[in-house]
Fold these 4 entries.
Entry 1:
Amino acid sequence: QLQLVESGGGLVQPGGSLRLSCTASGFTLDYYAMGWFRQAPGKEREGVSCISSGDGSTYYKDSVKGRFTISRDNAKNTVYLQMNSLKPEETGVYYCAARRAFRFCVPRADYWGKGTLVTVSS
């Protein structure tokens, strides 16, 4: 069964940190660009950070630059998103996605995880 499974979400205070993980099963991530997308209540899903399949180049939404770091470990078939200095407006469901392409960061993917909820609140 081909799937992506996210983990690492939870409740964190403003200014806190979380590390999200996304592990693939049933296929290898080597040839897939990977991305993390966020959907806040009542809003459309948006790209937060993505990493290419080839050279590992990265993209970050402007508002998270300098605070979030995306990385991938192809040997573990896993992608990570380290999130620091979190803000309340970054609350939402975070989805991992894979697309068989060099690079992408729009919500059109070949595979989606079911999402992990991140709540930033005091």
Entry 2:
Amino acid sequence: VQLQASGGGLVQAGGSLRLSCAASGRTFRSYAMGWFRQAPGKEREFVAVISGSGGSTYYADSVKGRFTISREKVKNTAYLQMNSLKPEDTAVYYCAVSTGGGSYYLDDYDYWGQGTQVTVSS
């Protein structure tokens, strides 16, 4: 079972990036998928989650209105579209799968990707 996160990079403040999380080894089509991030010296924090059906999403207040989570079940892939990026968005972004319905708690997630670096310059 693997989750492969990609799409990170260096971008100027106000710019956009689209992260992808491809799942392989088994299907996660019925499970919630989430994104978390960890900045240097800080704890990993919740960013967004999408339900197994794709019909429900939930965002951290810090990214609401700027980030959009989505998924393509056929491709077993989730996405995080990040717009209006700010320097404080700089972090390693991780995708994760929850077999228990998903939430903003790290412990609710069973599978984790390796992370992709996002750096936003001012």
Entry 3:
Amino acid sequence: QVQLVESGGGSVQPGGSTRLSCAASGFIFSISAMGWYRQAPGKEREPVAVIATVAGTNYADSVKGRFTISRDNGKKMVYLQMNSLKPEDTAVYYCNAVRDMATMTPIFAGSWGQGTQVTVSS
């Protein structure tokens, strides 16, 4: 059974930083591209960043240069370092395995975790 558990969100001031973590289980993590997605109130879920199994990343234009995705295959964890946060980054953030690095399409579209809330506000 696929399990995705996100953590690390919270309230941050504009310009601040935070780091999200995702613990994955129930699939072969080491051969799966992974990604972060977010859903703001009243909006559809959108891709934020993806990372390939060994190297290679892709980012949404809105976060390029500010967010960095990384992974630890031994721990089956994926991380999102978020810097220079803006109010428009406020959303619930989710992780998932990735089917396509270019389109950032998630694999387990029916198995999202509970997500972690990030609120950017002064």
Entry 4:
Amino acid sequence: QLQLAESGGGLVQPGGSLRLSCVASGVTLGYYYIGWFRQVPGKEREGVVCVSSGDGSIYYLDSVKGRFTISRDNAKNAVYLQMNSLKPEDTAVYYCAADFRCSGYVEEYTYWGQGTQVTVSS
């Protein structure tokens, strides 16, 4: 059974950076496509970016292009989300999810982590 755990969230000032980690246990993560989603209270969870098993990435939010980068380290069974030039509107709980295709839709993913809070504020 694949289990995912996110870490790396926290409080950061506008313009700052954070790197989120999504570490898998139970199964080799390299076979899976991994998506990052985010959610703010009262709003639906939205897809941010996905990385394929072959390292290709798809961005679902224009607002993060050029600022966020997804990468994976199969040797560490982990996927990362490097977030630079953070803005207050990036504040959300960030989740990683896994399945066998990339998608920006929540219902397309079977496995989810518990989420990590990112707060961008001065």
